[in-house]
Write a structure and sequence with these properties.
Elements (H helix, E strand, L loop, with lengths): L4 E7 L3 H14 L4 E7 L6 H8 L4 E5 L6 H11 L4 E4 L11 H9 L4 E5 L6 E2 L3 H17 L11 E4 L16 H11 L4 E5 L1 E2 L13 H20 L2
Parallel strand pairs: 1-2, 1-4, 2-3, 5-8, 6-9
Antiparallel strand pairs: 4-7, 5-7
Helix pairs in contact: 1-2, 5-7
Length: about 230
């Protein structure tokens, strides 16, 4: 019997993208599946839009406080019913067509499977500036933390038993992913990276502005977090 998959989609103002993401996930996933749209009280009422679509196996969690991607994913994990937890960005930059490949490796007895831009076959088709800053950050993270090529992928499948041993870091921005993956590695869980193609969003506004100074600021924040993870200060 196939395991149940819970797909967590953290959203904030993703009304233009969310139906396409949900439809694509439901089409490609052949396991029994539930989708949790965890919305940070979007001004464009993403939460209301999804509720009105009345999908049979989609739940909407509207969050009114403690906003942020890590907190949203954390709440989704707590309220999920599945044996396997998947999360990805809800703007189609993480194409759901890759989810079956993640699940295949979970079925092959891996605990964590990361969709990676930096293993053979993986690509990043976003702006040159984002590609460059992401490459530099992951080079730095690999020097200090090692073991994983894509430490800020944000697209992952996890056997739910992992959360019995590793507490999900439910705060912060994208650097939650670094903390979580590193803790899983330290605790001896089997991790595999498989290639995926990271594309740019076609609709809506990015939560991380594509400007040199803002990306530099986030790169500095991420870099500090990696240092703290490695050295504890």
């Amino acid at each position: 019997m196939k395991k149940i998959v819970s797909v967590i989609l953290p959203t904030f103002n993703e009304r233009e993208n969310i139906k396409e993401v949900i439809d694509s996930a439901l089409y490609h996933i052949k396991h029994p599946v539930e989708i949790l749209v965890v919305d940070d009280d979007s001004k464009d009422k993403t939460w209301q839009y999804v509720q009105d679509l009345e999908y049979k196996n989609v739940r909407v969690l509207r969050r009114m406080k403690n906003p942020g991607i890590a907190a949203s994913i954390g709440e989704g994990i707590e309220k999920s019913l599945g044996d396997i937890i998947v999360w990805l960005d809800a703007d189609m930059s993480h194409p759901p067509k890759h989810i079956p490949h993640l699940l295949e490796e979970i079925d092959n007895d891996y605990d964590i499977v990361i969709a990676s831009r930096f293993v053979p076959g993986g690509k990043d088709l976003r702006s040159k500036l984002r590609i460059f800053t992401s490459y530099l950050f992951n080079l730095y993270a690999n020097i200090l933390l090692s073991g994983v090529r894509d430490y800020d992928s944000g697209f992952i499948a996890v056997n739910k038993k992992v959360f019995d041993k590793v507490k999900f870091p439910g705060e912060g921005y994208g650097y939650y992913f670094i903390k979580f993956v590193y803790e899983c590695k330290k605790n001896g869980f089997k991790i595999k990276e498989i290639p995926f193609v990271n594309v740019d969003r076609e609709k809506g506004v990015s939560k991380t502005a594509d400007s040199f100074f803002k990306l530099l600021k986030w790169g500095f924040i991420y870099g500090k977090e990696v240092w703290k993870i490695k050295f504890g200060r």
